[in-house]
Structures are given as structure tokens and as C-alpha cells.
Design a protein that fits this description.
Layout (H helix, E strand, L loop, with lengths): L8 H43 L1 H126 L1
Length: 179
């Protein structure tokens, strides 16, 4: 017999179908035997009831007098089953709610950390253009200040040269006057 690993899907399906067919045949056989047994039993009871009228009186009296207690018992079983199912459902709801609350106490801090990380990343992303704008403006200001400083330096050099030339001219005049 091949192992389960060697069987193909079609072979497994055929095997399952055979097992299901066998189960169906067995169920049909059991049902037919129970039906036959029930019919023979009812025939036997009817025969005895017709032969012995006191047995008929006993069976009918027992059935009539037992109807109320058996009915009450059936109602009790139905109510207790419904109450048990309700209590079980309520208990399951309470336990599930508690477990959800415990899970939420774990989920909330995790989500806060995730939101903080995402917010930081968003700020970094948003601050990049701002940083670039500030750097460009700073460079423009520094370039402008450098140009002004250079102009002031050149203007100061020119003034100093003029003053130096003026002083040289004065010194020349003073030398000429001394001579």
C-alpha cells in the first residue's frame, strides 16, 4: 500500500469519496434496522394491549399522569440551558473585554511611540526645505556683508591714501618752506 506522501490529489479524493460512501451505506443500514425494530416493537405492544386490557389502562394512565411532570421537566431543561448559555456568553464577553483592555494597554504606548517617530520624521522632512532656505538667506547676507566690508575697506584705503598723499604734500611744502 502506498504511503500518504505517494498519493496524488485525485487518489486522496477517491479514497475520501469511498469512505464517505461506506459511511452513508452503514448509516442507511442502521436506520433501516432501527425502523424494522421499532415497527416490530410497536406491533408487539399493540398485540399485548389488545390481549390484556389492564396493561392498556396502565400504559395510558401512566402516559397521561406523566405528561405534566415530563412537560415541566422539559421546560426546566430548556430554561436552565438558556440560562447557562446566557451566563456563558456573558462570562465570555466579560473575559474578552478584559483581555481587550489588557491588549489596549499594550497597544496604546506602542502607538504613541510609533506616532512620535512618525512625527519626528515628518518634522525632519519638513525642516529640510526650511534649513535650506535659512542657509541660502544666510549665505546671501554673508555675501552682502562681505561685499560691504570690501567696499568699506577699499573706501578706507582710498581715504588713507588721500590723507597720506595730503600729508606727503604738506610735508613737501613744509620742507620747501624750511629750505
Amino acid at each position: 500500500m502506498p504511503s500518504e506522501r505517494d498519493l496524488t490529489n485525485d487518489q486522496v479524493a477517491a479514497s475520501a469519496q469511498l469512505a464517505f460512501q461506506s459511511l452513508r451505506t452503514t448509516a442507511h443500514t442502521v436506520t433501516s434496522h432501527l425502523t424494522l425494530l421499532t415497527s416490530h416493537s410497536l406491533t408487539l405492544v399493540q398485540t399485548y394491549i389488545q390481549r390484556y386490557p389492564s396493561l392498556q389502562t396502565f400504559l395510558y394512565t401512566t402516559a397521561i399522569l406523566s405528561a405534566l411532570p415530563v412537560g415541566c421537566f422539559a421546560v426546566w431543561v430548556a430554561l436552565s440551558t438558556a440560562a447557562t448559555v446566557f451566563i456563558a456568553a456573558l462570562s465570555a464577553f466579560v473575559v474578552e473585554s478584559g483581555l481587550i483592555a489588557i491588549g489596549f494597554t499594550v497597544l496604546l504606548p506602542v502607538e504613541c511611540v510609533i506616532l512620535s517617530i512618525a512625527g519626528g520624521a515628518a518634522l525632519l522632512t519638513a525642516s529640510q526645505p526650511l534649513r535650506q532656505t535659512i542657509m541660502r538667506r544666510s549665505q546671501l547676507v554673508l555675501t552682502d556683508l562681505n561685499d560691504r566690508a570690501l567696499q568699506l575697506h577699499k573706501s578706507a584705503q582710498r581715504r588713507l591714501r588721500k590723507e597720506l598723499n595730503g600729508l606727503k604734500a604738506d610735508a613737501t611744502l613744509v620742507e620747501d618752506d624750511v629750505d
